[in-house]
Write a structure and sequence with these properties.
The complex is a heterodimer of chains A (268) and B (430).
Chain A (H helix, E strand, L loop, with lengths): L1 H16 L7 H21 L14 H4 L1 H7 L20 H13 L5 H7 L4 H12 L15 H12 L11 H4 L18 H13 L9 H8 L2 H13 L31
Chain B lengths: L1 H25 L11 H8 L1 H13 L2 H4 L13 E4 L2 E4 L16 H10 L14 H4 L4 H13 L11 E2 L9 H8 L13 H11 L26 E2 L6 E2 L15 H10 L10 H8 L6 H12 L17 H19 L17 H4 L4 H9 L1 E2 L11 E2 L8 H13 L10 H6 L7
Antiparallel strand pairs in B: 1-2, 2-3, 4-5, 6-7
Helix pairs in contact in B: 2-7, 3-7, 5-7, 9-12, 10-12, 13-16, 15-16
The chains are: A mainly alpha (268), B mainly alpha (430).
């Protein structure tokens, strides 16, 4: 369609020359030549658009300016503020599922709900794959100054969980290296403290949810507020491993029944 | 405003009392439980009629109100926001207890055509029977056949969320006397069949006027202002003028521009966003080309009105537009062009754009704050998008750039001030 418009506009350009010419056989011939060659020349050699018309690259990156303004051109997020999460390198299935959850109202955040509301499943998938394929270095963000015992508690929750509270280890699903598991479990490394703690909070208040049974909601509700601080702080201060790729699909046995994992897993 | 409303309360009460009395004496009582006539039964099972009904239900965009976000299609639950309270749309799947399972076609016809429920109760006009009354009986039958063919979903209706006196249903008798006249679409022989098809779709099933017309204090559309644009109550978007009016209407739009917008979500003259993006995705993109052409032909016949007197700015807005021009050059011109021409098929033009010039300035303000995508449709599956500027521009800066684009090039629209931007900073969702 843009191509079609360009051709039309070019023939208009050609026509504007004609009134200045006397109608003799020679000018008629030139007119004919110009009418056919000018549009062609414009299409082939030049940008035929009006002087002010910007030339817009036909790339996904250009198309998704609404995403990259906040999340960064390569999905690096906003490490400084911690407000807009990193998307780069997260499993594509996870990213697509989050966009669908915003569409379905399982995740509540008005600007995101508005932005993704009318995107088709195929386009959602394409956008998710773009960000999943991005590789940008992680940046360490600020972590509150906490007592060593708090960080120890955080480490305990991440690596072994708390059997008395029925909380499984984060590593059980998010991977041994905490880099996530294909296709839908996100990595937890390199995320800002504020982001992790606010997500755990939103699972408790119901502004973030997943398909039932919502195992993360169960876990978040079993965590005491002090545990949320502990686990978020430990994760945010944990060194990012050299290989940040998610674990392959099928490499975990979820300790809880999780809707997002098609009901795999067990426990309570 | 609130003082005025309080003054109305006693008047409303008297009207309500009279209406209740009138309604009791004239009401037809609960719907009959008569069996469906055999001829109707056969039609309800006819696959061709069901398919026609599916198309018509899409043209009427029934699914939009009768489906809650993320819910089962047509199972209801979405609350339609009105200035009088929220009115949840009911389940219209064939579930016997919570849907239309026990309805026969006459019940459905009465609801669609006259706005009266199965038990004789008056229906709130959030259900747009003010428009649907124009739908023919044959089309209504096809829609009913389609709805009855849907998988049934058990989902009880949510309670009405209306405050007194609006919660008194019988009061609707007074409202109906003022704003509702039942009647089928009457073809206009002075126009072509195509024009008449367009008028039928726009005025009836499409119920375009429910958003694209101004509403008065009682929520009725102003009859003299059909399709001339209006602010959508509660959602606070402006549904633009659909007549051929300049400065905010469809002046300059070709028939194909109208078809393009309805079919793909964008056109050479502007893109669909906000609530219209939803309408394009769930309804108009699925319409047959000849129906879209008919709609365009009808809209192109809506006459422009005498130019409204342009509001003279009460203060010198020159510094505002100068500031806006700088912001435009930095943030907007890269995509929309210095002259506001946009890029065909990619970014909409701002010069001559009806949504830029609509009277309130809400649409342009929201577009700057929220950015976002054109809807993803079959005709434009991978739309381009605009960055949201809510985090980057202050209220004063948004006011400046919006005022600039409303007054630059050939545009003539009123100034938007900082206080107008503050009102519209939140993101409207449902």
């Amino acid at each position: 369609m843009p191509q079609h418009n360009r051709t039309q506009r070019s023939s208009r350009v050609a026509q504007t020359y004609t009134p200045h010419m006397k109608t003799t056989p020679a000018t008629a011939w030139w007119r004919l030549v110009l009418q056919w060659t000018l549009p062609l020349a414009c299409v082939v050699f030049g940008n035929p658009s009006r002087a002010d018309q910007p030339s817009i690259p036909d790339t996904l990156q250009q198309r998704i300016a609404a995403c990259t303004t906040c999340h960064g051109v390569h999905g690096e997020g906003s490490p400084g503020s911690g407000f807009f999460p990193r998307l780069a390198g997260k499993p594509a299935g996870y990213l697509a599922l989050q966009l669908q959850n915003f569409q379905r109202g399982l995740r509540k955040y008005a600007p995101m709900e508005y932005t993704v509301r009318q995107l088709s499943p195929a386009y959602v998938r394409e956008i998710a794959e773009y960000f999943a394929a991005q590789q940008v270095p992680y940046e360490r963000s600020a972590v509150p100054d906490l007592a060593p015992s708090t960080l120890q508690r955080g480490q305990q929750l991440v690596t072994s969980g708390d059997t008395a509270l029925n909380i499984p280890a984060c590593q059980a699903c998010h991977g041994k290296a905490l880099t996530g598991t294909e296709p839908v479990v996100p990595g937890l490394v390199g995320l800002p403290y504020d982001y992790i703690s606010s997500q755990l909070g939103s699972w408790r208040t119901g502004t973030r949810a997943s398909s039932a049974p919502d195992c993360m909601a169960q876990i978040a509700n079993r965590l005491a507020p002090a545990d949320i601080t502990a686990v978020s702080a430990w994760l945010a201060s944990h060194d990012v491993p050299s290989d940040t790729h998610p674990q392959p699909a099928g490499s975990i046995t979820p300790p809880l029944h999780c809707g997002v994992l098609q009901g795999q897993g067990g426990g309570a | 405003m609130s003082g005025l409303r309080r003054l109305w309360v006693p008047v409303v009460l008297v009207v309500v009392a009279l209406a209740v009395w009138w309604w009791r004496s004239h009401s037809a009582g609960p719907a009959s439980v008569a069996m469906e006539e055999p001829a109707v039964v056969a039609k309800l099972k006819d696959p061709a009629i069901i398919a026609k009904g599916r198309y018509l239900a899409t043209a009427g965009d029934c699914i939009s109100c009768h489906t809650v976000q993320g819910g089962q299609p047509y199972a209801g639950g979405r609350a339609v926001p009105t200035p009088f309270g929220n009115i949840p749309a009911p389940n219209i799947t064939p579930d016997p207890d919570t849907g239309l399972g026990r309805w026969n076609f006459d019940d459905f016809w009465r609801a669609l055509h006259t706005g009266v429920g199965r038990n004789g109760e008056l229906l709130y006009p959030a259900f747009s029977y003010t428009s649907f009354t124009k739908v023919t009986r044959d089309d209504a039958l096809a829609i009913f056949a389609y709805l009855q063919s849907l998988p049934s979903t058990h989902q009880p209706a949510k309670p009405l969320d209306l405050s007194f006196p609006y919660s008194v249903r019988s009061g609707l008798a007074a409202w109906r006397a003022l704003y509702f006249k039942p009647g089928s679409y009457q073809p206009d022989p002075s126009h072509s069949p195509v024009w008449n098809r367009g008028a039928y779709l726009v005025q009836g099933l499409g119920h375009c006027n429910e958003c694209h017309a101004a509403r008065d204090a009682w929520g009725g559309t102003v009859s003299k202002a059909q399709l001339t644009g209006g602010q959508i109550p509660e959602l606070d978007w402006y549904a633009t003028d659909l007549s051929m009016q300049a400065n905010g209407g469809l002046r300059g739009w070709s028939k194909q521009d109208i078809v393009d917008l309805l079919q793909t979500g964008q056109s050479a003259k502007g893109a669909a966003f906000g609530p219209m993006a939803d309408v394009v995705v769930s309804s108009t993109q699925h319409l047959r080309d000849e129906d879209l052409q008919a709609i365009a032909e009808y809209l192109q016949s809506l006459p422009p009105r005498p130019s409204p007197i342009t509001e003279s700015a009460s203060f010198n807005s020159q510094s505002l537009t100068d500031h806006g021009k700088d912001i435009y050059a930095q943030r907007c011109a890269n995509c929309h062009g210095k002259e506001g021409n946009g890029v065909p098929g990619v970014y909409p033009p701002l010069d001559g754009n009806a949504s830029v010039m609509e009277p309130t300035g809400i649409n342009a303000t929201r577009a700057v704050l929220l950015g976002g995508f054109s809807p993803s449709t079959e005709g434009n599956p991978r739309p381009y998008s605009m960055p949201p500027y809510a985090q980057q521009l202050s209220d004063a800066e948004v006011a400046a750039v919006v005022t600039y684009i409303r007054q630059a090039w050939s545009n003539h629209a009123a100034t938007v001030q900082e206080r107008d931007v503050i009102k519209n900073r939140h993101t409207p969702i449902d």
